Amino acid sequence: MPSAPLQPADVPTSTGLSREALRSVITDHALSPVFQPIVKLDDGSFYAHEALIRGPQGSDFYMPEALFGSAAAAGMSFDLEIACIGAVLKQWGRLNTAGRLFVNISADVMISAMEQHGVEGLLRWIQECNVTPRSLVLEITEHDRVENMDRLAEVVEQVRSIGLSLALDDFGDGHSSLRLWSQLKPEVVKIDKYFIRNLSADGDKLKTIQALQQIASIFGSALVAEGVENAQDLRILRDLGIEYGQGYFLGRPEVNPLKTLLSEPRRVLSERQVAVFPELGRLSQGGHLRSLSLINAPTVNPNTSIDDLARIFMEDSQLHAIAVTEGDRPVGIINRAQFMNEYSKLYYREVWGRKPCFIHANREPRLIEREHSVDELVGILTSQDQRYLSDGFIVTENGSYVGLGTGDQLVRSVTETRIEAARHANPLTFLPGNIPITQHIERLLKKQVRFVACYADLNHFKPYNDYYGYWRGDEMIRLLARIAMEQCDSQRDFLGHVGGDDFIILFQSPDWLKRCERLVNDFAERARMLFDEDARTAGGIEAEDRHGVRRFFPCTTVSVGALVVDGAVDSGAEGVANLAAMAKHEAKLSPSGIHQIVLS
Hints:
The chain is α/β, with parallel strands linked by helices. It has three domains: 19-270, TIM Barrel, CATH 3.20.20.450; 289-416, CBS-domain; 428-599, Reverse transcriptase/Diguanylate cyclase domain (Alpha-Beta Plaits), CATH 3.30.70.270. 41% of the residues lie in helices and 20% in strands. The chain contains 21 helices and 21 strands. Helix 4 (107-128) runs parallel beside helix 5 (149-161). The longest helix has 22 residues, at 107-128. It starts with 18 loop residues before the first helix and ends with a strand. Mean pLDDT is 87; it is low at 2-16 and 281-286.
């Protein structure tokens, strides 16, 4: 495919490099392709190689950033891209390497090339380079918004007609749009390396990738994780079920394509260990007000008479309040109980019945937009002005009245939101709650790895909590969380907080028993410091037991029940948790504080 005419020579670009120098690089065939593998994460085989370009060794054009930056400044981007594609195809044809080839091309160049040479010219060019069209994947590298999306979609269909596939590069970097994905339906989408870098420690990135997996499933696209740089991130991607990976840890760009995967990433992909997923950096924000069942209550205007307002209340005995509006805009709220108390007084209706009802309104009602999070309504519960709790609140959408909410409904909704959030992350320790614990057990069982489910529980905690108060009790629970975390390998072991003083540790570390022993011993020593000096000297405290009988309780310790799971198990996550809890009850009777059951 011939290139377009070059621009006038010897004019410096913004990088200080002349068009003549750049033209020499293009016309003298001084562009050198290198190839980086794209690896299948389920078995470690090579799915494809991406072709990257280098300029002359030792020149100012060697790195692609300088090369393409100079071309853009010189108005020679089309010429350079066509030359790069030609160099890549010729070299790949000479190498005769198995597998697919990803070739970078911008949307504008793809459209322009098709308009100049047509699909037949493209096919002829590929075949002349001894490349099979069905092995070729055009990777759209779009760093500016695509101006003519419909035209690009037409060109993509022409390209597909001769057997080529399409990939979308750097999705999520702010340039590649969801519309591009939706309209072009690429066979492959490459996730920008921002979301992959440090993935093993960033729960927000994990959730983003899981969302992209759902979109990919809808559009029928495979995902490639770019920028895989270490074993920890690779484990997460492998266990997430991402199809392909690319990055320096998997293989660097080479002049001669790699034939097999390097030993270290091969070991990571073949190991039976299940990765510990990072949790979100914050608690769930809970549901939105839109999900609540609002009261579709009538409204009055400020000039509605008191008698008319009374008739509305008497016709609907369940109506707790009425909003006062001017047009669609709420300006007040009238509480039923307070109003009817006044209206029922002797001679009140005779004297005041025809007066405007606005004299009874709270003119500073609580207005809540329907898109607000339920958590944002907690301020109503904690407000010193209790009118907000008795009156409820007015719900608006874009400032217009849509309904009412009650104080009872608010309390119930906030409580349910808090309970649901605690199932994901415990609000005291911020450790994963019941849902992430269950999910991790299920992943361990599915992969049939050997692991140990440990149930840790405090001994004599209730007397301590009653004696010193909930604040010191919370400190005791947080101490156990810190010590348990110290004994966990963050890459192998999962620590969750069931609730109260109950914790679950899912060990994959082979030295799990020593870790449990250190946990029991370290806690026994450090927990004593949370007792007063007199209690430390006595070895415990005098407090009432569950039956109200006063007796002596030793200083708080921890017991750990361990369930060793080796191989396939039919009991599921709930069964594993129940058996670990049974082992914990036995541990409370053991002098060591540890009891183990083997399940195989």
